[in-house]
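Revision sheet: structure tokens.
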Amino acid sequence: MVIAWRVMYLMRLGRICPDLPAELIFDPLEWKSSYGLLDKKIPKKVPTLNAVLRNLATLGGFLGRKSDGDPGAKSIWIGFQRIQDCVYGIQMARKLKGVF
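Predicted:
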């Protein structure tokens, strides 16, 4: 339920306030992972909420064509799952750095 609430919140906030800095909503590891998984260059400045949501939606299957409109809850949710898996992997790699 909490994840569904966050996905809907992100979707609505991205439509109402797309120019907010992404770090207000996302952890730096989350928004940087969204760029890394898409093989995009990680920006030096914090990107906008809209840019990160588009990355999440792209990871979730959103094509982003002119006539597609804004990304929906399902594509954001699937992309968010991929980001969370990536973040978990990075955290585990940091934890196990000297083990192997």
